[in-house]
């Protein structure tokens, strides 16, 4: 089976059969969605030109859209040279099996959908590539949840990628992340329309809870200097947030912006998928069952480049420093310097282009094709 | 009237009459609670030994309790030398008038209680000191919301304090603060027991909403390194947060700790007061109506020492830098170096003692008594 014959820039869905989670729940008939750009060249079990791009929490397999300007002919991930593949994470809602998918009994999985770990998400991707007949790739790259997946790939399947680029993530969840991420999950669970996760056949979804979760999350994705430079204490146009009584309809501009971010997510993402993948991030810990972080990273054999954002409050730069310092085969640590905060792994295109070029060039040394 | 005759270490409540908020609502018959330690000496309109201590969001007038080891005989704020007075903020629930207080009609204020600004809180304190016959003090000090009040005092009533110490706060709310504080307010407002603020006569209060607000707030009060060092990805004893399905009863240790913080606050604080004072912090802006921050600070004539915590994510250190750089009569900027984050203005006793001693000594130069 070659991937050249199908899926060029369009989404494909491949059934990978049953998957049993780390915690021991079996999901029969798992689907994984993916997209491909560029022509696959080389040996699917050796040197080839395939680069796997891993998306973050609420993104999809359409990598050239959320990484616009970085993937395509002549760009940093040059699809004239490389074959780029992006899969939609297990547990998401963009084509891969998740809590909104139908259980074999014909009803949505809902609360029956198991909790996932990042390793489970990677296991599903491994099964996809096995199904595609590909057991080795040129490189794997991701930021945030995508970085967690890329890092897990290198530790769980050290023979898969010739090189890796891990950005804006830590080797495990920090207690602060678990705290703020769990507050987001609680906001959804406390929405009466959540119905313990079984709202898919109901008239109303936990939209308010999901929007609240996103408001909180967005404040961890953006640097406080950047948000302040944009909004400060400015009132939303036509609003008076300094009136006689507190009135949630009279807003500071920043709150109007955050509500807008919440609404935008509600329109495009499923609350159940949000809870599932946020919970997977809570469980992220490459040291779990491997004798701890330091030992797990030290055993890594995949040449891995690490990058972090200097103003990231969600995955602070010291987490990438620690990762780069402990990796068995580190290619070094790159700093994305930006006022934007965590989201700079999506927005700082010029710096990202340089880092991506370094990453694919590093792999070229390891694996000519 | 002398304050020596009463209130030694015990809480007193003084009626200050009517107060009209900046936004134009009149609260008749306002009470302000305060405590005093040490003997007042000197001229109530000139040089004297009175130091005003301003508390933070959910604290009370019992300053030697929340600043244990810093206020008392022989301590940094030496009550053998100084007379220390701490007032409970207007809008709080520890003796001063707030939304839980009774309206003249005999029912709780609830939703009728006006939104306050930090200036309104200061105006009530000014009226208290006027009622006590004191128009000048040795110094005024506070951290966080207490720092916002101390700073506003120096700008609104430049003849009141001979010196000021402003800690762990900014000259105005930042957009990030407004965003995260409003998320906390929303958590309370979305609790069905909030009842638009009129829950005081109901059987149930918005406890869950207040606890959620505190969970979020606590993550902004503590440095992520400190929280991570304490909890990491550890499970709460006897819990399995990595089970087959997400289960909010199976917790990571950090979430158990945050829930505990939420419960503790629910037991001692009123949700209405929390919303009122958080909203006052949203409105904090010393530049408002004064031509902006830089101009307002430049006009300050009170010798003011500024201190900040190097790991504070709620009021990042650059905010205190900006304040110290722009103040008309700055006594300089001190760094509280701590992994604890914002709360270091409460916990780093040795460093705080040094800063407090410098502050009271600075005032002594200005105003001998």
TrEMBL record, chains A, B:
Domain of life: Bacteria
Assembly and binders: Homodimer.
Active site (catalytic residues): 144 (nucleophile), 312, 342
Its biological purpose: Transfers an acetyl group from acetyl-CoA to L-homoserine, forming acetyl-L-homoserine.
Annotated AB hydrolase-1 domain residues: 50-348
Residues the entry annotates as binding substrate: 214, 343
Family: Belongs to the AB hydrolase superfamily. MetX family.
Catalytic activity, reaction form: L-homoserine + acetyl-CoA = O-acetyl-L-homoserine + CoA
Name of this protein: Homoserine O-acetyltransferase
Gene Ontology biological process terms from the UniProt entry: homoserine metabolic process; methionine biosynthetic process
EC number: 2.3.1.31
InterPro entries xref list: AB_hydrolase_1, AB_hydrolase_fold, HAT_MetX-like
């Amino acid at each position: 089976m070659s991937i050249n014959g199908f899926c060029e820039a369009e989404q494909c869905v491949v059934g990978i059969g049953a998957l049993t989670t780390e915690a021991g729940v079996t999901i029969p008939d798992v689907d994984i969605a993916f997209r491909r750009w560029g022509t696959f060249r080389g040996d699917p079990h050796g040197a080839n030109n395939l680069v796997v791009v891993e998306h973050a929490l609420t993104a999809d397999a359409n990598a050239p859209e959320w990484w616009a300007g970085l993937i395509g002919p002549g760009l940093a991930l040059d699809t004239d040279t490389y074959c780029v593949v992006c899969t939609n994470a297990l547990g998401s809602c963009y084509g891969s099996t998740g809590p909104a998918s139908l259980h074999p009994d014909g009803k949505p999985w809902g609360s029956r959908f198991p909790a996932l770990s990042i390793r489970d998400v990677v296991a599903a991707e491994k099964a996809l590539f096995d199904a595609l007949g590909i057991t080795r790739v040129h490189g794997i790259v991701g930021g945030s949840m995508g970085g967690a997946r890329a890092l897990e790939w290198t530790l769980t399947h050290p023979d898969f990628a010739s090189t890796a680029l891990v950005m804006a993530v830590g080797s495990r969840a920090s207690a602060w992340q678990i705290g703020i991420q769990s507050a987001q999950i609680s906001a959804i669970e406390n929405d009466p329309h959540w119905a313990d996760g079984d709202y898919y056949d109901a008239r109303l979804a936990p939209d308010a809870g999901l929007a609240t979760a996103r408001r909180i999350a967005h404040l961890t994705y953006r640097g406080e200097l950047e948000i302040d430079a944009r909004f400060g204490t400015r009132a939303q146009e036509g609003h008076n947030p300094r009136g006689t009584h507190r009135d949630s309809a009279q807003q500071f501009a920043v709150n109007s912006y955050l509500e807008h971010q919440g609404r935008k997510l509600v329109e495009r993402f499923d609350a159940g998928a949000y809870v599932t993948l946020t919970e997977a991030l809570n469980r992220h810990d490459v040291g779990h069952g491997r004798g701890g972080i330091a030992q797990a990273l030290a055993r890594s054999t995949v040449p891995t480049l690490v990058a972090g954002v200097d103003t990231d409050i969600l995955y602070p730069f010291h987490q990438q420093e620690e990762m780069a310092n402990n990796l068995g085969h580190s290619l070094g640590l790159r700093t994305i310097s930006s006022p934007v905060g965590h989201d700079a792994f999506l927005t700082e295109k010029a710096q990202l282009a340089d880092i991506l070029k370094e990453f694919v060039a590093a792999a070229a040394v390891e694996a000519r094709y």
